[in-house]
Structures are given as structure tokens and as C-alpha cells.
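>> received
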Amino acid sequence: MPFYHHSPLPLDSIRLLRLLPHNGYETSPVKCQLSACPLLDSKTAHVFDALSYVWGSGDTPYIILIDNREYRVGANLHAALLHLRDGFVDRVLWIDAICIDQTNMAEKGQQVHAMAKIYAKAGRVIVWLGEEVANSDQALEAIRMSANSHSTAPVVDETTKQAILDLLGRPWFQRIWVCGEDLGTAKNRILTKRFP
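>> returned
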């Protein structure tokens, strides 16, 4: 099967990835379609979600299909795509590793420069923190409950505090554009403010 190669991207456009349903077979290959659309200075609305995730190592051991051609992605992105695809409906996404031609330096520079606008135009931003682990549901539920609570009283025990710290220790939170300050300080402030 031939490999996918990006077509030239028109000025003031981005590519959007249509993640196709798995049609009842969750182990079936990830199938997608990629198309360009005017967006950056367009008044035309395109409903899409932007994916924020950690690329991981430079290894790309997984193959997905874009327009029936093979395209290599990293393990973390592959896991995210498996979790994001539906059994029945398409999902439209903007994912930097796929929607930007990583071999075209001019395009890459232009698209990276426009990323704030791309994320702002997205219907929502999906944050992929990685695969579920034993205490991640507990941490997310505690954070959700705390966000909905008007009380400043402690709402979690030591086990839940540790679950939250484990969650905040994931690589996504280490990225420089996620935190504008030292992560350790941010963790301490979160835990002392909401979970004394």
C-alpha cells in the first residue's frame, strides 16, 4: 500500500482530519480522510476539535490510513485516535502531527505561527493525557467535584491527593506552553488552595 504524502496547502488554510468510525470493530485499523479548508481569515465556520497531546519519542511505529494510504504516527497519538473514534459517526479533528506537513519547513513555520488562532477557532480542545491508569479516574472525579464545589474545605483524602499529583506529573503538564511557571509551584498552589 502506498504512503500518504501531503498535497500543497493553500494560503490561509489548514487541513482537517476526518476520523472515520470503526464500524463495530474496535481493533480495525484507524481510517481517516484529510482535506484542506480555508480557515484562518475565513468567516466560514468549520466545526472541528483540536487535539492537545504529547508527541513522545520520534518513533512512529503505528500505521493509520489516510485516504487509503499508509501514514506513520507515534504510540501516544495512535492511542488517542483509538479512544477518540466512534463506532458510528465521523469526528473532525485538527492534529498538528498529521494536519501539518512535517517535511515542509515553510508550511510548518506558517502553521505553527497560526496555532493560537487554530485552537481559538476549534469548537473545543481535547486534551489527551494518556492511557487510563489505576487512580486517574479518581483524580479527575475529585478535580471535577472540587471545581463544582463552592466550599474551600478539604474534599479529598491522602490517596486522592496522591492520585491528583500522579495526574499532574504526566508529560502533558511538563510542556512549556501548558504552564507559564514552575510546575512544582503550580502543584503546591493547587493542593494547598483546594486540598489542604
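>> Confidence is low (pLDDT under 50) at residues 179-196.
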